[in-house]
Write a structure and sequence with these properties.
By secondary structure, the chain is mainly α. It has helices at residues 3-13, 18-30, 32-50, 60-74, 83-107, 130-167.
């Protein structure tokens, strides 16, 4: 679009200052080419004004929102676990534990004849009397039972939540 057409469109739309309107109206009266262009744009403007704009149906917004909602519902809530990452972590820990075991066995000074007969002679066990032993065992069992109940409850809740999400 050239500069003349822009000025004529602004004149037709009424977006000019009064000085520009006077200058353009005098130009239209004096120049036949500008007058012909003005009449052409004016007829185009009136044709645009007579056109009926197409409107979307009343339920368009609702249909679009429903389509978006069903699209989001199809995506699983939990992200998929990449099995290669899990395998990489497992391989890392396996290699680390194997290396640790090799270093431990390499640093042990083995006797030339084989294992000594009294292996317990080199290890000293802590002195625990029977009253302390009973309390320690009871505390250990209590802790294990509580931990087991907690883990079992977490397992059942996870199972119930998975069942509830499938029903939705």
């Amino acid at each position: 679009m050239n500069n003349l057409e822009e000025k004529l469109w602004n004149y037709i739309d009424g977006n000019c200052t009064p000085e520009e309107q006077n200058a353009i109206s005098s130009l239209i009266e004096k120049d036949a080419v500008v007058g012909a262009k003005y009449r052409e744009l004016l007829s185009l403007h009136s044709a645009f004004a007579q056109m009926d704009l197409e409107e979307p149906p009343m339920a368009f917004t609702y249909n679009v929102m429903e389509a978006i909602r069903t699209e989001n519902a199809q995506v699983p809530l939990k992200a998929a676990v990449n099995k290669r990452i899990i395998r990489g972590i497992a391989i890392f820990f396996t290699i680390t534990i194997a290396t640790l075991l090799v270093l431990v066995f390499a640093s042990v000074k083995w006797p030339a004849q084989g294992l000594p007969v009294s292996l317990t002679a080199h290890f000293k066990m802590p002195d625990i009397n029977s009253s302390q032993t009973k309390v320690i065992v009871q505390a250990f069992v209590f802790f294990d039972v509580m931990l087991g109940l907690y883990l079992f409850d977490a397992y059942l809740r996870r199972k119930r939540d998975a069942k509830d999400t499938k029903m939705l």
